[in-house]
């Protein structure tokens, strides 16, 4: 069998892979703590699950819906965007997709031609790059500073005449970075000036901590909003990763193209999940706040502990999402390893903790640790990693060589 060039260049998602390996070890009875995972550990709130059960029982879920989603769900999304952002999108400027991942995939199909350049911050989420490649485009990396943020200066350095799209993900996976209104305004104006379409991946928008504020690109100005496609979904905020409901909102012509592709590819997202999503978006939002507070508490407890792991260096405290992204170059050296990928393997095999190599996000020398797991497991995981690293520290001390650990 001969495979297409597209299929030959695509690699499996590193985050999904590490999570699957950890889950397989757990199934074999090995006590692995999985910090590789990119999904909340809470069950979907009961009110949402009950709405799905009611929809099944009342016979509403046996049939196709429009490929771009139920009109009632589009209305619920429009209302939620209006309430959360103060921005109005008519329901026909919204498409419902199988998770935000599919929204982003279809967008690349709609916006990217052979050779189109898509500006992606380094680091950024694993799938953007692959989705750009699958659309025939060229990912162009925009460098960030120690705060993991791009600026108009780094954009000026990266941009070429073929650059047509820029993806902004705030709060950001894998760093937890949140862009301020001023920073987004500068980036938004830059994009308008350069005729670059912005994709605002707001999937972690509800998960912001310690009085930090989330702002979306679509809130900056009418001009910036008109150049932006908004991507969001229910996965992270409502603990609904398995239900696969995401959405995008943008200009009518763009939505028309997206809907045509959806009608020939996924068809509609599962009807039952769409009814669940209506309940999620319309019901009392207190469950979202309860989960947000739990993540905040975990971040506040775990951040200082991770800072103390020998060889782990954390930049400023993350403001959102549920990830820590320490630099581990000193830990790699201390353990006598070649790179952060080897450290990931060692931590899984020896300390029984699963984490993701920063290389998957374009940044080798870093690890992504998810705190979407119980505080108890988090503390144990950090103890295990610390113990694993301490053995090398002890060897160095007994050998008389000092090391700066933080
Ligand atoms: C930055 C980012 N965007 C989009 C997604 C996709 O989310 P979903 O397809 O579950 O809605 C994820 C999931 O990990 C993510 O981290």
From TrEMBL:
Residues 31-385 form the Aminotransferase class I/classII large domain. One of its GO terms (molecular function) is pyridoxal phosphate binding. InterPro entries: Aminotransferase_I/II_large (IPR004839), AspAT/PAT-like (IPR050596), NHTrfase_class1_PyrdxlP-BS (IPR004838), PyrdxlP-dep_Trfase (IPR015424), PyrdxlP-dep_Trfase_major (IPR015421), PyrdxlP-dep_Trfase_small (IPR015422). Its EC number is 2.6.1.-. Its cofactor is pyridoxal 5'-phosphate. It holds the Pfam family Aminotran_1_2. GO terms for biological process: amino acid metabolic process. Keywords: Aminotransferase, Pyridoxal phosphate, Transferase. Belongs to the class-I pyridoxal-phosphate-dependent aminotransferase family. This is Aminotransferase. The lineage of its organism: Bacteria, Bacillati, Bacillota, Bacilli, Lactobacillales.
């Amino acid at each position: 069998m001969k495979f297409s060039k597209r299929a030959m260049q695509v690699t499996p998602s590193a985050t999904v892979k590490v999570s699957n390996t950890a889950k397989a070890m757990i199934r074999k009875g090995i006590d692995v703590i999985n910090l590789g995972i990119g999904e909340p550990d809470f069950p979907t709130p009961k009110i949402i699950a009950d709405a799905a059960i009611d929809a099944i029982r009342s016979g509403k879920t046996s049939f196709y819906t429009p490929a771009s989603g139920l009109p009632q769900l589009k209305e619920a999304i429009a209302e939620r965007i209006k309430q959360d952002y103060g921005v109005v999108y008519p329901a026909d400027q919204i498409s419902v997709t199988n998770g935000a991942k599919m929204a982003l995939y279809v967008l690349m199909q709609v916006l990217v031609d052979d050779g189109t350049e898509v500006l992606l911050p380094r680091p950024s989420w694993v799938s953007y790059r692959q989705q750009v490649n699958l659309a025939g485009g060229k990912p162009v990396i925009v460098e960030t500073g120690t705060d993991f943020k791009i600026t108009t200066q780094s954009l000026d350095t990266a941009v070429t005449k073929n650059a047509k799209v820029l993806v902004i993900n705030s709060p950001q996976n894998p760093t937890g970075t949140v862009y301020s209104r001023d920073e987004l305004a500068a980036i938004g104006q830059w994009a308008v000036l350069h005729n670059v379409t912005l994709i605002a991946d707001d999937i972690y928008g509800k998960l912001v901590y310690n009085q930090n504020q989330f702002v979306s690109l679509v809130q900056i100005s009418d001009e910036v909003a008109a150049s932006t496609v908004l991507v969001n979904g229910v996965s992270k905020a409502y603990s609904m990763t398995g239900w696969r409901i995401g959405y995008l909102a943008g200009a009518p012509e763009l939505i028309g193209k997206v809907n045509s592709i959806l009608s020939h590819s996924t068809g509609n997202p599962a009807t039952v999940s769409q009814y669940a999503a209506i309940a999620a978006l319309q019901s009392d939002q207190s469950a979202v706040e309860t989960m947000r507070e739990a993540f905040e508490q975990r971040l506040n407890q775990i951040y200082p502990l991770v800072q103390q792991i020998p060889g782990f260096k954390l930049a400023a405290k993350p403001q959102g999402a549920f990830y820590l992204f320490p630099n581990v170059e000193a830990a790699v050296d201390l353990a006598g390893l070649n790179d952060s990928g080897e450290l990931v393997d060692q931590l899984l095999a020896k300390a029984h903790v699963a984490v993701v190599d920063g290389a998957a996000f374009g940044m080798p020398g870093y690890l992504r640790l998810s705190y979407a797991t119980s505080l108890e497991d988090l503390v144990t995981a950090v103890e295990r990693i610390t113990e694993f690293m301490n053995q090398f520290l002890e060897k160095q001390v007994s050998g008389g060589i000092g090391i700066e650990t933080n």
